[in-house]
Amino acid sequence: PRAGEAKAESRGVPFGAMIQSDYFRSDAAYRQAFLDHCDMIVPGAELKFDQIRPERDIWRLEPAETLVDFAMDNGRTSRGHTHVWWNSVPPWLEAITDRREGERVLIEHVERVTNHFRGKLLGWDVVNEVIAHDPIQEGPLRRSKWLQLLGPRHIPLAFEATARTDPAARLVVNDYDLEFVGPRFDARREIMLTIVRQMLDANIPVGGVGIQGHLYGDRQIDIDALTRFHKDLDALGVELLVTELDVINRESAPDPASMDALAGKLVGDLMDGIFAWKRPAAVVTWGITDRYTWIPDEMPRYDGEPHRPLPLDRDYRPKAWFEIL
Ligand code: XIL
C-alpha cells in the first residue's frame, strides 16, 4: 500500500499536507513526497480570496485546480482553504464600504469558487481565524474587514453560501491557538464552541472544527482541555480535524535531534489530547518537508539555524515523530 494509505489504515485517520504550486512545479521529489505519504492535499495559498481575485474581474482558479487534479488523478482527496480570511483581502475589496455591496461580493465569491470545485473537495475551511487573537482584550471576534463590513453575520452567510452550492462538502470553522495552557486559550476554545452552537441553532450545517496546530517550543499543550473540547464538539455532532500542524521552535537547541525530540513531545501531547476522546477526522500538516515552510519568513529562529517543523526533513527523510500521526 502507499504510505499515506497505510497511515489511514493503521490509525484510521486520513493524513494530508499543505502543498505549494511553485515547488510543485519545480521539484519532482516534492511531488513524490505527497504521493508517498498523503491521503489528502491542501493548496496553501491558491484558494485564498486575494489569490483567486487579485482584481475584481480577474478569477484565477487554475493554480488550485492543478493541485486538486493532481490529487484526484492519483486517487487522493483535497480540502479547500479558505473562503474568508482577514489576511487575504485584496485592495479592491478593502476599498468597499457599502454593506450590501460587501454582502454581494462575499456570496458571489463563495458560490463561484465552491461551485468550480464542487465534488472535488472533501470540504472547506469556510472561515479561517475569525476569533480575536486575544479575546480577553479584544472581544470575541477578530476585527477583520469582513467583520467591519458585515458584522458577525458574515460567518453564517459564508457557511450558507458554501452549503447550498456544495451540500456534500464538510464545512469547517478553522482557527489557531486552540490547544495550549492558559486563559487566552481557554477563552478561544469557548468562543469556538459558541460560534459552532449558534450556527447549529440556526440550522447552518457546521461539519467540523479545524485546529490549525501551529505548535510552539515554549508553550504547553492543554491535554485535558483538548479532550473536553473534542468531547463537546462531538456532542454537537461536529468533527475535529487538525488542519495546519507544524512546530515553531524559535529557542536555541543544542542539535537537530533535541529539536525533533521537543517536536515529538508537542505533537504527541496534541494527539493524546484529541485521541483521548476519539479519532480526529483528519490530520494535515502545513507542508511536508522542512525545505519549504512559511515559518522562517514570519518567525526565524533566534539562533539563525534552520527550523525543523515538518514530518520530513530537508532531504525528505521522515522524522521519528511522523509515526505518531
Ligand atoms: C500562509 C501560507 O503558508 C503562506 O504561503 C502565505 O503566504 C500566507 O499564508 N495560518 C493559516 C494559513 O491559516 O493560511 C497561513 O498560510 C499560515 C497561518
UniProtKB/TrEMBL annotation:
BP term (GO), one: xylan catabolic process
Record-given protein name: Beta-xylanase
Keyword Cytoplasm: no
Gene3D superfamilies for this protein: Glycosidases
Family classification: Belongs to the glycosyl hydrolase 10 (cellulase F) family.
EC number(s) given by UniProt: 3.2.1.8
Limits of the GH10 domain: 7-325
